[in-house]
């Protein structure tokens, strides 16, 4: 993502101030230090990406009815994560108190905490023991809690059960080769005409970083290794990206995918024009809505994403609630986060939206499983999922990944050269 000049300058100043102040082990009473008392009560704001379900407002209405003097107002940001992140950074670098509770993508925690844009959360007041362990780490930075996991996510393969059955395919594919074979069989059916084989996010957005990470991790590679060093100039990384390149080149994935975001893909699947779709769990509820908006109601199921030799490595997604270091009424904000993170609220939200909860027990809840039979599959996927690069300069890193991989997908740059270029870019961005 390319920052505006103002954001770049202010973010640079914030980084400089962070470097001067260390990692937050000193005085924690200054606003923006990431620590100090969470004091102040009164109205607050909840800053979030677009709420497609409308359920977030219902949950906020419940809070507001019980707390008339501490009401919450939702500030809805653009749908694209890159744009959400940019607006949150603009608010933080100007030290504005307009944003109180931030609904953060799980990979933003390190960047926001390192820059002291978040208030540290008291671990003794938030019950993280009941959450899936993989989700808890997404809210931590250097052993401290800065964000409370509210929803989790992992990539799943949505597939048309009706078309596979007619084509004589009894099980969802576990490998890329099996997926292509199933596509070929469906294409021979009269019902398969005009149906695209496969779609995942490959437009130049955050979704492409997710897609690239999943493809590379599925072949045994990494974007950044365990020591934090770039590792994309490898045969495994090239194999993963080549899978995506060849999918477009061979017509397995429509070229229109290069301009579609996640919502565009969802609409394509719900219109009945797609056989296999790598997507987040939120699509399940929308695609099964019997209001005329979906042509695939009761005609699809979900499975683990495939890989080269078996199930692939899904990406760990989700959203966490954090408190802006510059906000007023932080005590109210903390109580509101507790309210939203409560098991009862998480269950209600999941039932209404099909968003994945972070409370582990809900994956074994009979009512939940009855509505979402795939929950055991999703739980396993989350527990085994891999994260996108956890780096302080995440915005620059994801922009570099998107740029290099997109050039390879569009045929502008050979995959090998694209990976070499990306290795060089990431080395500059991750070197202290």
Automatic annotation (TrEMBL):
PROSITE patterns: PROKAR_LIPOPROTEIN. Keywords: Signal, Transport. Pfam families: SBP_bac_1 (PF01547). InterPro entries: Bact_solute-bd_prot1, SBP. Residues 22-51 are annotated as: Disordered. The keyword Membrane does not apply. It comes from the Bacteria. PANTHER family: ABC TRANSPORTER PERIPLASMIC-BINDING PROTEIN YCJN-RELATED (PTHR43649:SF34), ARABINOSE-BINDING PROTEIN-RELATED (PTHR43649). Belongs to the bacterial solute-binding protein 1 family. This is Carbohydrate ABC transporter substrate-binding protein, CUT1 family. It comes from Thermomonospora echinospora.
């Amino acid at each position: 993502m390319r920052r505006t000049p103002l954001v770049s300058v202010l973010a640079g100043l914030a980084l400089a101030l962070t470097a001067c102040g260390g990692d937050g082990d000193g005085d924690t009473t200054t606003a923006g230090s990431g620590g100090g008392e969470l004091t102040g009560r009164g109205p607050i704001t909840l800053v979030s990406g677009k709420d497609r379900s409308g359920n977030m407002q219902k949950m906020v209405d419940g809070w507001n009815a019980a707390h008339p003097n501490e009401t919450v107002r939702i500030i809805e940001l653009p749908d694209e994560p890159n744009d959400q992140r940019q607006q949150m950074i603009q608010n933080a670098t100007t030290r504005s108190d307009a944003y109180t509770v931030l609904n953060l993508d799980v990979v933003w925690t390190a960047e926001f905490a390192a820059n002291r844009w978040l208030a540290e959360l008291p671990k003794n007041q938030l019950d993280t023991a009941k959450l899936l362990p993989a989700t808890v780490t997404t809210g931590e930075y250097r052993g401290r809690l800065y964000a409370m996991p509210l929803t989790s996510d992992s990539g799943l393969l949505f597939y048309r059960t009706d078309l596979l059955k007619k084509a004589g395919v009894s099980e969802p594919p576990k490998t890329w080769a099996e997926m292509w074979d199933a596509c070929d069989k469906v294409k021979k059916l009269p019902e398969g005409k005009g149906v695209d084989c496969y779609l995942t996010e490959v437009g130049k957005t955050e979704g492409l970083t997710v897609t690239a990470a999943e493809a590379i991790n599925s072949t045994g590679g990494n974007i950044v290794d365990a020591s934090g060093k770039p590792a994309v100039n490898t045969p495994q990384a090239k194999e993963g990206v080549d899978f995506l390149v060849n999918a477009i080149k061979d017509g397995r994935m429509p070229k229109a995918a290069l301009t579609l975001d996640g919502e565009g893909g969802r609409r394509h699947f719900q219109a009945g024009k797609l056989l296999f779709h790598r997507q987040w769990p939120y699509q399940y509820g929308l695609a099964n809505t019997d209001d005329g908006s979906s042509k695939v109601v009761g005609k699809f199921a979900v499975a683990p994403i495939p890989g080269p030799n078996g199930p692939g490595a899904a990406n760990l997604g989700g959203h966490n609630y954090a408190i802006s270091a510059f906000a007023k009424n932080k005590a109210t904000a903390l109580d509101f986060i507790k309210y939203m993170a409560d098991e009862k609220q998480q269950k209600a939200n999941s039932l209404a939206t099909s968003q994945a909860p972070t409370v582990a027990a809900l994956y074994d809840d009979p009512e939940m499983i009855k509505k979402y039979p795939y929950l055991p599959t999703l739980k396993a996927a989350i527990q085994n999922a891999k994260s996108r690069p956890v780096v302080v300069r995440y915005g620059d890193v994801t922009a570099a990944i998107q740029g290099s991989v997109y050039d390879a997908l569009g045929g502008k740059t050979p995959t090998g050269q694209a990976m070499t270029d990306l290795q060089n870019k990431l080395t500059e961005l991750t070197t202290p």
